[in-house]
UniProtKB/TrEMBL annotation, chain A:
This is Cytochrome aa3 subunit 2. Keywords: Copper, Metal-binding, Oxidoreductase. The lineage of its organism: Bacteria, Bacillati, Bacillota, Bacilli, Bacillales. Its main location: other. Signal peptide: none annotated. It comes from Cytobacillus firmus (Bacillus firmus).
From TrEMBL, chain B:
The chain crosses the membrane at residues 24-45. Keywords: Membrane, Transmembrane, Transmembrane helix. The lineage of its organism: Bacteria, Bacillati, Bacillota, Bacilli, Bacillales. This is Subunit I/II of b(O/a)3-type cytochrome C oxidase. It comes from the Bacteria. It comes from Cytobacillus firmus DS1.
Length: 158, 49
């Protein structure tokens, strides 16, 4: 098959870029262990308040795990529990969240933490809080009349 | 008497359309644009917690 040399050039360039992108994705997923926030963990949405760990929302220190703290959130129309939390600077935290009623969002503004909370599913995100400051958590999935007032706060303190 | 057109030879200019220089330039412009924006978003992802 005759192919112009320019055609060869842009095909190699295109396929090469695709391979680079897919490699980055593969390393992220299979080596660094990144996964979707809601990954096969389920819960009975009727019994959230009595199910561990959602019976005690908030920050808890844990031992013997890859992270130092677990930060548990329960979302319901139209608030998050806890409404405010202080996280020590540099702490590696696993955020575990779910909802009691409808679909809610969980976005920590200005960070990579952005999850959808679906009834019946548990959403998780592991992160290291390496910048001090106050971070606003907002609901970014329309959940009803009080949607725009639904927020919480994370304070990263020294 | 009217002359028939049959015998008249006309030369039609054929433009050389085999040059792919412009195509190459536009393909690579688009390619670099995609790579720069992809890397930009990736760096933003890396720099935030």
């Amino acid at each position: 098959m005759h192919m112009h040399k320019f055609e060869k050039a842009w095909l190699i360039f295109g396929i090469g870029s695709l391979l680079v992108f897919l490699t980055v994705l593969g390393v992220s997923a299979f080596y660094l262990g990144n996964q979707p926030p809601s990954c096969l963990a389920t819960i009975d949405p009727e019994k959230v308040d009595t199910t561990v760990p959602f019976n005690e929302p908030g920050l808890k220190k844990v031992e013997g795990k890859d992270w130092d703290y677990e930060l548990v959130y329960v979302a319901s129309a139209f608030s998050y529990s806890p409404a405010e939390v202080e996280v020590p600077y540099g702490a590696k935290v696993k955020i575990i969240a779910t909802t009691k009623d409808v679909v809610h969002g969980f976005e920590v503004a200005g960070s990579n933490i952005n999850m959808m909370l679906e009834p019946g599913y548990i959403s998780e995100h592991v992160t290291t809080f390496d910048k001090t400051g106050e971070y606003l958590i907002v609901c970014n999935e329309y959940c009803g009349v009080g949607h725009h007032m639904m927020s919480s706060k994370i304070k990263v303190v020294e | 008497m009217a002359k028939t057109e049959l015998s008249r030879k006309t030369k039609t200019e054929i433009e050389d359309s085999s040059s792919l220089k412009g195509t190459l330039a536009s393909v690579f412009l688009l390619g670099f644009f995609l790579i720069i924006t992809w890397v930009g978003v990736y760096l933003l992802f890396i720099s935030r917690f």
